[in-house]
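Hi R.,

Here's the input for the NAP complex you asked about:
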Amino acid sequence: MSDDVDLMSAAVALGEQGRITAPPNPWVGCLIVSPEGEVVGRGFHRAPGEPHAEVHALAEAGPRATGATAVVTLEPCAHHGRTPPCAPALIEAGVARVVVALLDPDPQVSGRGLEHLRQAGIDVEVDVGADAAAASLAPYLHHRRTGRPYCLLKSAMSLDGRTAAADGTSRWITGPEARADSHRLRAESQAVVIGAGTALADRPTLTARLDPPASRQPLRVLLDAAGRVPPEGPLFDPTLAATLVVTTPAADRDAVKAWLAAGADVEEVRSAPDGRGVDLLGALAVLGERGVVQAMVEGGATLHGALVRAGLVDHMVLYVGGGLLGEGGQPLLAGPGPSTMAEAPHWRVVAARPIGADVRLDCEPQADGSEGR
Ligand SMILES: NC(=O)c1ccc[n+]([C@@H]2O[C@H](COP(=O)([O-])OP(=O)(O)OC[C@H]3O[C@@H](n4cnc5c(N)ncnc54)[C@H](OP(=O)(O)O)[C@@H]3O)[C@@H](O)[C@H]2O)c1
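And here is the predicted structure with NAP in place:
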């Protein structure tokens, strides 16, 4: 059993190789292991329309798949999508046992794949190494369960928790290593989201700049309820990446025309319930429908505060630099907060690591609402 868990973590690491290119599909990894314990096949899902992880692993194993164990991070599919289903492929190859970390919440799969394997007399085990697989596939699982993207909030802040100086400047709070790391997060996201304030203050590009260059760019998403941001600068340069403006029916019609004329896509959702900005659930639903599995939010404090208060942030990445900006600087989260400690929402630091001269903190909401200290 502990061997199975170790093999599953190797399969998870293999699946991670498809993380940038597989979405909106899951970045699954699969190993085929002979009865003697030798790994005879390895596969991961590289891109939509291409073979699934199991198919690659079975191809490498060839006849050695007969009587072997397949170790797969996500339930094999049983339906015909763009590629033939994997459960029948495993049956046909003669595997004796299938070890799976997670059931697939996608309604097209959800339990059917495992049922298919069991009916064929294959010994099936589920929930093996599930924590590692769930951490890796969290954005996919969230997208399929809710229809919304996994919301990753990223911010760079000073040692005293400020995200911009009093004059609005925020370049560069952290060093080149932290910035390179955040470009990787952009590449792993299918959309990068900002609010109108950041678009006006920073005129950002929002592309993923990797070396070697990323094979695809995330959709750049601007939340602008009223039409305040003119279609100028790199954010509206269609040769860099596609841009989507999410706005409301109250937006200035000339602004909408100008966005469209500049080559941007425009989607309208209703106004936020408090009348400030676009409805965030509606905006995220629009992205979910467009196959955005992970949305990286790089807004300013206004958007971040609204998202956190609405309970819509699934993960925060905070890069903490060494500067001190004092009370004139902008906070991480604008808007009302709890009036007393007992009402404070709690987040858990799931990882902390130095990057260059800065520190990266990965934080998630405390699931059970307990204090976590
Ligand atoms: N350190 C960092 O990592 C970092 C990152 C980004 C920005 N910044 C800094 O942050 C500053 C800009 O901050 P900001 O707070 O003005 O920018 P922001 O949060 O990006 O934009 C806020 C604006 O977004 C629009 N918006 C649309 N829907 C919204 C909603 N549901 N909730 C909240 N806002 C919504 C609103 O304008 P409408 O009502 O007109 O739509 C709102 O005023 C700049 O100085 C920039 O340099 C720092």
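One thing worth noting: The CA atoms of residues 152 and 296 lie 5 Å apart.

Cheers,
M.
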